[in-house]
Design a protein that fits this description.
Elements: E1 24-30, E2 40-46, E3 52-56, H1 61-66
Antiparallel strand pairs: 1-2, 2-3
Amino acid sequence: MPGQKEKYHDRRGRPDGLKVEKVIHLSILIGEGTEADKIRIVEQYYNMDGDLIFELDHCSPYYQEFLDLR
């Protein structure tokens, strides 16, 4: 129809693909129980070759910075 804008799909922020793959997920209790080193559970994820992919430590300055809490 004349005068109508052509519709398009805005895909920004949407995934382009998804794969389900096996990982090794470890939950590890760490820390000394002090204010500087609180006792906490750290989540570690490894690929099937045993290589560390990433670690989630809620007390890590990197984690706090990622969440913009610092």
